[in-house]
Amino acid sequence: MNTNKLDESLSAYSTAFPYYFDNEITLSWYAKQITAKFAKDISVLDLGLGYGMVANLFGKYFSDYTVLEGSQEIIGQYMTEFPNSPVKNIECTFFENYKTDKQYDLIIMGFILEHVENPVQILNYYKKFLRRGGCMILAVPNAETMNRQLGYYAGLLDDVTKLSDYDRELGHLRYYTVDTFKKDIEKAGLKIKNIEGLYLKPFTTKQIASLNFDKNIFDALCMLGVKYPELSVGIMVECEMEVPC
Fold first, then answer.
1. Rounded-to-integer distance, Cα 29 and Cα 198, Å
2. Is the N or the C terminus of the chain less surrounded, counting Cβ atoms within 10 Å?
3. Which pLDDT tens digit goes with each residue over 204-226?
4. Looking at the whole model, is its pTM more than 0.90?
5. How far does CA 56 lie from the centroid of its chain?
6. What is the tally of structural domains in the chain?
């Protein structure tokens, strides 16, 4: 990866992006689920700024919170969008180049692995920054989400794993399924503690937006998605390092 390539995705990480509607629902729920699982006083390393909404929430919640971001342009956009950001430590670095002597209680890779050339290599690299007994939270987009499968069976999509132009604009290199995600995690020598879905989206974005659903409906779709990672927009996994026998 290089700076120019990362900077090309800048426009996709704004409120004007066509799928911001979906991403806001998914990411807001994802952040809520993580803060419900972990204490405020732990040390946290988070990979990627993206839209910035999650970092802004985590920065308010976690007392020791560091974000890594490879694009100075995306960092600048975040600071413009959140001028009173609570995040005290944002490091501009490619994930492959990050170095520290510190070990963290929690390492978060939220919708990161679909962007990198070698996901297993990244997982292996970051294990050394995880303290003994620490956790990793990983989240990826799901190729087999209900709305994509519906599109496939309706003849609107010829392959659920195929990347769209919007995916490429976001810098995506792949989609995952629950099975392929588990395989990459296991190849990296990590043990899955919990797996859940992020937002059960039954129809297309335009169809859902036209229905003017109440917030309670979206909350219910997120709660329902927890039980059905195979059908949800995102797959979230909590994992830890394998302990040799």
1. 7
2. C
3. 888 998 999 999 999 999 999 99
4. yes
5. 14
6. 1
